[in-house]
Write a structure and sequence with these properties.
five-stranded mixed β-sheet; 145 residues; 2 helices; 50% strand; mainly beta; globular; four-stranded antiparallel β-sheet
Length: 145
């Protein structure tokens, strides 16, 4: 058996380092979160929600009005935390817990309500989470791409 002139440990070292750094070099997930106020007293849909009007009306049939409050665009890596400003002095924290070919899982925390919940959806699929705060209903419309 002949032995190579070059030791293999530098090659193994580079491969091992690359594997360890692979997760941190992953492309962050683009996450869009729209905060929408839903109301039963008035009529109408904010023109900026034109693309999701039918989905809103069919998912939340008791509400007659939908107003877009804020839009958040986040780039999240696994375990990274994104902060969202919500209406009426509410805030939320969104973190990416799991990313798999079948979908993504987020943890959402709202400190003022002492609420924590998990949201799981497929990439590109719109997901709604309703929140009631001070007699108002807010919808978090979350899409991960």
């Amino acid at each position: 058996m002949t032995r190579s002139k070059w030791p293999l440990w530098p090659l193994y070292s580079v491969l091992f380092t690359t594997l360890l750094m692979g997760a941190s070099l992953a492309t962050p997930l683009k996450v869009n979160v729209d905060v929408i106020e839903a109301d039963m007293g008035s009529e109408g849909v904010d023109p900026r929600l034109r693309g999701v009007t039918q989905t809103l009306r069919s998912t939340f049939p008791k509400y007659t009005s939908f107003k877009l409050h804020t839009q958040h665009r986040l780039n999240l890596s696994l375990g990274e935390l994104g902060r969202l400003a919500l209406p009426d002095q509410l805030s939320a924290e969104l973190s990416l817990e799991e990313e798999a070919p079948s979908g993504v899982t987020f943890k959402v925390s709202i400190p003022q309500k002492k609420a924590n919940f998990r949201v799981r959806s497929k990439r590109g699929e719109l997901f709604f989470q309703a929140l009631v705060w001070r007699k108002k209903t807010y919808l978090l419309a979350i899409v991960a791409r």
